[in-house]
Amino acid sequence: MKQDIFQAIADPTRRAILTLLAIQALTPNAMAEKFDMTRQAVSKHIKVLHECDLIKPEQNGREIHYHFNAKKMQQFDHWLAQFRQNWETQFNQLDQLLTTIKEETTKWH
User: Fold this and answer.
1) What share of the chain has pLDDT > 70, as a percent?
2) What is the pLDDT of residues 48-65, one digit of tens each?
3) What is each CA distance from 85 to 41, 73, 77, 109, in whole angstroms?
4) Number of neighbours of residue 14 by Cβ within 10 angstroms
5) What single string gives the DSSP state of each residue in 18-84?
6) Nearest CA among 32, 63, 64 for reference residue 45
7) pLDDT of residue 75
């Protein structure tokens, strides 16, 4: 069953795992060493991230290394971009309004 990407990244541990994997591929055991939790608990987080395609496994001998899936995060970034554009427009309008108020205030004094 596919997980919702927003539910997946809502958890701070899963965000921390993504941050670790953005730097380098890690095995579940290596990830578990970074957190104060059992390997089984980390594996549950890995399962959710994998179901969302946020991470990709790569079999390397007997071990599985997980990699950060930048393409999936780009899709998320594209979704956020529409809001970023709106915020930037509103901040630019606010800047313009403040500049106008400051200029008018300066004229009166």
Assistant:
1) 99
2) 999 999 999 999 999 999
3) 38, 18, 12, 36
4) 22
5) HHHHHH--B-HHHHHHTTTS-HHHHHHHHHHHHHTTSEEEEEETTEEEEEE-HHHHHHHHHHHHHHH
6) 32
7) 85
User: Which residue, chain included where needed, has tokens 């809001």?
Assistant: 83
Query: Could you tell me if 66 and 55 are in contact, meaning their C-beta atoms sit under 8 angstroms apart?
Result: yes
> How many angstroms separate the Cα of 101 from the Cα of each of 19, 44, 94, 96, 104?
43, 55, 10, 9, 5
Sites in the chain below the pLDDT cut of 70: 1
Give the C-alpha separation, 42 to 93, whole Å. 45
Contact yes or no for 46/13 (Cβ under 8 A): no
